[in-house]
Amino acid sequence: MTARDAYLYAMNFIRGRHPDGEADISTNAEYSYLYARKVIRDRFLAGEPSIIARPLIACDYAKFVLKSRFIDAEESISANAKSAFNYARRIIKGRWAKGEPAICRDAKIALEYTKRFVKRRFPEAEPAILSSPLTAYHYARDIIRGPWSDAESIIATDHFASYCYADIILNGPFKLGEESIATDPNMTFFYSRGVLKKRFVQGENAVKASPDFYLRYRLWHALAPHCPIHGINVDDFTYYNDGIAPPDGTDKLIEAKLGKIITRHLKQLNFNVIECDWVPGEGSKRDYIRIVIEGDLPPI
After folding, report:
1. Which residues are CB-neighbours of 71 under 8 A, at least 6 positions away?
2. Which 3 state secondary structure label does DSSP give 298?
């Protein structure tokens, strides 16, 4: 009989301990754990050697069966980053020195462990955290809470991490990351709009290759010099792939004039406004001004 068959027989037919099947069940870590938790609701000593060999299952066994530390399995659990973190979180409920060497080898787990339990710089984890641009950014944001010069060359290799580092950490340009930001139309638009607050020429080739973001980019830069428009900051508009929606609470009289106002501004910049109509939004999209334009931003 297989471990699975013996466990299912105990669970579904006997609905209790199955002595004749325990030798088979004990050969499999998963079914030993399930047998202990769901059938006998107690330790299953015969199955513990199999459970100990599987650190993640051993951690679950400690949590849901023993409801305490599983001393015999701690060597195995501590050798695996995920199981060591789970054991610290579920059983130790704090820092667990024995598991930290393994935890410090995994960037994401080291970051989460530092945030939950160390709550300050954790030098032993920093080499792993520095292996990933996003974990390096999050460490700067959540632990250092400011610029992290040692990480900037790593962060700069990823367009999203670079934009976030500029926007959240530096509150200004991140020159080292601009090369990677410039490869992505989405990040180019948000870096230009939210960080530089002016055109980001280095990224415009990427934006031009994406018609949707190119429209957003052109609209924002065409409208920004006229900010605010009748008291509405252009940053408060929602920019869609084919137009813009004014913020909630916009005065109805102003709403009615926005299409004409925007058309006038665009024409002043030599855009050919083919369409500028108020249309009902679909799905979660609010009612918005659909805009079709031809023309590029003037050269700088």
Report:
1. none
2. coil
